Amino acid sequence: MEKNEEYEIDELIEIQKKIVPELIDTLINRQNMLRLIYYNQPIGRRNLASVMEIGERIVRNEVNILKEQGFIDIKAEGMNVTKLGYTTLEVLRGYIHRFKGLYHIEEAVANKLKIKKVMVVPGFYDEDPLVLREIGRITAIYLKTLLKEDTVIGITGGQTMAMIADEMKNEEVALSNATVIPARGGLGKNVEKQANTIAAKMAKKLKGSYKLLHMPDNISKELLKSLSEDPNIKEVVDYIQKIGILVFGMGRADKMAMRRRLNEEMMTNLKRQGAVAEAFGYYFNKDGEIIQEVNTVGVSLNHYKELQHIIGAAAGIEKAEAVIAISRLNKHLTLVIDEGLATEILK
After folding, report:
1. 151 Cβ contact list (under 8 Å, min separation 6)
2. Which of 250, 271, 280, 329 is a plausible cystine mate for 314, CB 3.0–4.6 Å?
3. Which residue segments constitute the domains of the chain, with CATH numbers given?
4. Beta-bridge partners for 334
């Protein structure tokens, strides 16, 4: 879009805000309703009213408007978004992004963190869990724009990474003969959120291949050395050095310490030293300085600092300090976050 066109659109939006200030609330509410129906379809009016925490009468009126415009179908099993509704939802996402001035917020966050790019998803994850699905969707779309022939993609574990794989659209044909591998070992008991599971799911959707790393993340260096002699494990460890695109979640130091089951003394020590983030085998303070090293399997800190294509995704205002700290490690970072987290970072 040309600069003049962008200016005209922004100017029109500002005029709309002044003449019909109630427009933005109505627009956001109906977009939110359409989005909720899309993610939960088929869904009945009563369930929708419960999810939105509003009266059934209000839902009935709004739903009738969406149906009259051809955005949804209503059947015995519930409501479904039509093809027109899906297309409209895509357009509304961009419009609301501009209406809220999120382009300016993205630029401000990128400048403050001194990183390559910031993408802000409208909404507050702390108030609306569906925002995480939007983060997953946006990240998946952006990831595909970076793919080249024989790209090796590394991805870590966690809820946000799992959502990226879930929201990625299935490709009809292979985009780039990509190989997806776990960028770190297993951590925790939830199989769906393990890097191995996420890597396999993403590879299938990209019509690519994948390698699995059958090794826990927090093992001793002696055991790591011993296990690395296994041909299957050595193949994946060698592949990690070939990662061209890294997609990772940003963990708070205290939460990651709990997942690693550190003892109380170690956790107290981390807090005393001001640890706010954990990544790539280290705990960091708010300035991105190393506080403590931990045994880990996967992408090393030195390797991370050399990567040109890295995508970090996070949601929730509690991640602000962790995001700020990790952003200091590589200026090539592209950050995908929610509106609430972006606002918190700028405070």
Report:
1. 176, 177, 178, 179, 244, 245
2. 250
3. 3-99 (1.10.10.10), 102-345 (3.40.50.1360)
4. 117, 311
∠ CA(152), CA(154), CA(156), 5° rounding?
170
Can you tell me the distance from the alpha carbon of 293 to that of 218, in angstroms, rounded to the nearest whole number? 11
CA distance 226 to 281: 19
Q: How far apart are CA 287 and CA 280, in angstroms?
A: 16
The pair phi, psi for residue 115, each rounded to 5°, is -120, 170
Give me the residues paired with residue 337 across strands.
120, 314
**117 strand-pairing partners:** 334
The tens digit of pLDDT for each residue in 214-246 reads: 776 666 666 666 766 777 777 878 888 899 999
Which residue, chain included where needed, has tokens 């899309």? Answer: 38
Burial-class residue 127 by CB neighbours within 10 Å (0-12, 13-18, 19+): exposed
Q: Is the pLDDT of residue 324 over 70?
A: yes
